[in-house]
Amino acid sequence: MKDSPYKTAQLKERSADELRGLLAELKKEMFDLRIMAATSQLKDTNRIAANRRNIARVLTEVSTRKASRRRNDNE
Predict the structure, then answer these.
(1) Which residue of 40, 60, 62, 66 is surrounded by the most CB atoms within 10 Å?
(2) Looking at the domain assignment, is residue 11 inside a domain?
(3) CB within 8 A of 41, min separation 6: which ones?
């Protein structure tokens, strides 16, 4: 996963709108992968796990930003 757009450092450089778009794209891909797996068209089933981890990475960055913003508002 060298130079992947889902590495933590690269996710931190993205704006909130870009993260939301990326998350929507990943969720659509996950839906497509699940359909392909159900119809026995998916050969590389590891893509589902990799996609799930990428979704988690994006969600972690979003929640970290929200928590940071809340901490800054309380100070």
Answers:
(1) 62
(2) no
(3) none
d(CA 45, CA 47): 5
In the DSSP assignment, the letter for residue 30 is H
Q: Give the count of domains, the chain.
A: 1
pTM of the model: 0.87
Percent of the chain at pLDDT exceeding 70: 96
Pair of tokens at residue 35: 């359909």
Q: Which two tokens stand for residue 24?
A: 């929507």
Residue 7 domain flag: no
Phi, psi of 40 (to 5 degrees): 60, 30
Q: What is the distance between the alpha carbons of residues 50 and 66, in angstroms, rounded to a whole number?
A: 25
CATH number at residue 47: 1.10.287
